[in-house]
Amino acid sequence: MFHRGPDAKNVAMPGDMMVIDFSVRYNGYTSDVARTVYFLRPGEERAPEAVRRCVKASVDAVSACAAFIRPGVAGYQVDEVGRSAIVSSGYPSFAHSTGHQVGLEVHDGGTLLGPISRPGSQRTLRKDEIYAIEPTVLQDILPDGTVLPCAIVEDEWIVTENGCSLINPEKRQLAVIEIPYKEA
Question: Which pTM does this prediction carry?
């Protein structure tokens, strides 16, 4: 099931990054998970430092949010933690919310992990609620055409009595893909 649906007809090329944001519906409930992929250039064995740093900032921000979450905290407080982690890593803040509830729909429930001005962000988290957490590194294209790396690592967490617990498989490192390449 597509979360939003494909929005481009581009073909992945060596050196590209791709965000895969998807959901699955099972027994009436949905998930919302995202991962960032890097396509290796010929001769590369791993992604460049700028790409790895970008993904690490997103992973660290998700971890900071997870460490903060517990019953009784407000959605906007979680957003502040995620947003602050991204900015303190040297990246710009992002326009969307840090996260949202998941359940019968991809965006479900009334509590939003977003800025205090957004509806639902002043509500508090409760035990057994499930949240997708996705603080994101989004950057622009420089005037010279250089595309700066962007990354989303989105995981789902269930609020427990004293914190939260990851419910999707833990695979939070950057995925790399080698594209078969032939010299022209």
Answer: 0.86
